[in-house]
Write a structure and sequence with these properties.
This protein is α/β, with parallel strands linked by helices and 464 residues long. Helices cover 43% and strands 17% of the residues.
Length: 464
């Protein structure tokens, strides 16, 4: 392993978030051969408490030289291999805050441990066979989950439900490779190779790879969330829509056009999908320099959004200014929101005259009255499920690294099929078949390089 992931020695790190006057408990985790010795050096357990694995001791953390009391704490003991890393692990459960946990960590470092690198505890769990690579990545997803569904998808991966089908596909490829190599080594002793059976098996594997590969965009959306920009002319009710949707007063609402000068953001969850909603400044021609900056930021936000909510005023109907804005954002997935529907006098008022027929999704709202929000969320989820914006599949949701490996495997299998069709010797069949086996092994970690591990685990927080 590289210096970044030198997995020797005993490591220590703070395993909980440290926020002044916020955390009630802080945990310092230690893993490695010297973990138990460090615990016995720093921790005093009064009475006849037994130092056994998977027991919690009550006592005091003291400086080993001065015997100065550092904290009243609990100590959790987990001896190898029954621990997260499959090494001896101890955890000091201290009072929260900054000073206490920092002092305890420093004492651990002074008495034989070194500071853990980001993700090093989980890296050791992987290298020691406690987890495969898909499970390790699921742990990072679980820590960073932004919705209950994202957390659930991470748990699915942590339970091995992605690793199992990948391992099965790899095993099937290995079986095919064994059949071919047996004919190469013992051609005279075995019946001829059934080419049709080999082709059929490779096609089955390719179909399953394609099925798993189709979840890549869905999984990415579940992890990163959906960015939605509310755009439109000034005073059509964009800020009122954000406030009604988020049930807050994030945006200032007045009858004066140009009130919103900058992009206002709110974080929501819609149908289990994290949604970042951006209320943008009204787009119009203006001489106000500050408003000009806000309008330009609105255009940039709309260009970067996964979904645009083009909002118009039901009283004014579709205007030339609305058309101009639409032409700027029509390249993005879009829902038309007709707001202030409560102010339209009769159902015969033609507020929809002139709306381009290229706009397929239309929602009517009365944001000031908190009406139409459910319909808006349903339209967003419909856009997601229809494929305009990719949705999340809780049964299986691969990440981009895993998707890249699956693409390599599928390409290799297609090359095997081409080689068979060209009636090339059996030795040529095995070359790309081994490539597919290696690519599938990269996903679970059976075949993995140091650079891949470094890229994956460097994204973890320290202490995990």
């Amino acid at each position: 392993m590289s210096e970044i992931f030198a997995t020797t020695g005993t490591i220590a790190a703070i395993a909980t978030a440290v926020v002044p006057q916020q955390g009630s408990v802080g945990i310092v985790r230690v893993s490695g051969l010297e973990a138990m010795q460090i615990a016995q050096t720093l921790f005093y357990a009064p009475g006849r408490q037994v130092w056994e694995s998977h027991h919690i001791l009550y006592g005091y953390i003291r400086h080993p030289q001065t015997q100065q009391l550092v904290d009243e704490a609990l100590l959790l003991l987990m001896k190898a291999p029954r621990s997260y890393t499959r090494e001896d692990v101890v955890e000091f459960h201290c009072h929260g805050g900054i000073m206490v946990v920092q002092q305890v960590l420093q004492l651990c470092l002074e008495n034989g441990a070194r500071l853990a690198q980001p993700g090093e505890f989980t890296l050791r769990a992987f290298l020691n066979g406690r987890l495969d690579l898909t499970q390790a990545e699921s742990i990072a997803d679980l820590v960073g989950a932004r919705s209950p569904q994202a957390a659930q998808a991470a748990l699915v991966g942590l339970q091995g439900k992605l690793a199992y089908p990948i391992r099965q596909l790899r095993a099937n490829c290995l079986d095919v490779l064994a059949e071919i190599e047996a004919r190469i080594d013992f051609e005279e002793d075995l019946p001829p190779l059934d080419d049709k059976a080999i082709i059929s098996e490779i096609e089955k594997i390719s179909v399953e790879i394609s099925r798993i590969l189709a979840t890549a965009d869905k999984g990415e959306l579940l992890r990163t969330g959906l960015k939605v920009a509310i755009v439109g002319r000034p005073n059509v009710g964009k800020s009122s829509l954000l406030n009604a949707w988020s049930r807050t007063d994030r945006a200032i609402v007045t009858d004066l056009p140009g009130t919103t000068r900058d992009v206002v953001e709110s974080q929501l969850v819609v149908g289990g999908i994290p949604v970042q909603v951006l209320d943008t400044a009204g787009i119009r021609q203006t001489q106000d320099q500050v408003e000009k900056i806000g309008v330009e930021r609105s255009r940039r936000a709309a260009s970067a959004a996964d979904l645009v909510l083009l909002t118009i005023d039901a009283q004014a109907g579709w205007t030339a200014a609305d058309l101009e804005i639409y032409e700027q954002v029509q390249h993005r997935p879009l829902i038309l929101v007709i707001n202030k529907i409560d102010l339209v006098q009769t159902c015969h008022d033609r507020f929809d005259v002139g709306i381009p027929n290229t706009i397929k999704q239309v929602v009517k709202t009365a944001a000031a009255q908190n009406q139409g929000i459910a319909a808006l969320e349903a339209a967003i989820l419909e856009a997601v499920s229809s494929g305009k914006v990719q949705a999340a599949d809780l049964d299986l949701a691969i990440n981009q690294r895993q998707a890249a490996a699956l693409v390599k495997a599928k390409t290799s299998l297609e090359q095997v099929q081409a080689t068979i069709a060209q009636q090339l010797p059996l030795d040529f069949w095995t070359i790309d078949l081994r490539g597919a086996i290696y690519a599938l092994g990269e996903i679970t970690g059976e075949e993995v390089t140091e650079s891949v591990l470094e890229r994956i685990f460097s994204k973890f927080c320290i202490g995990k």
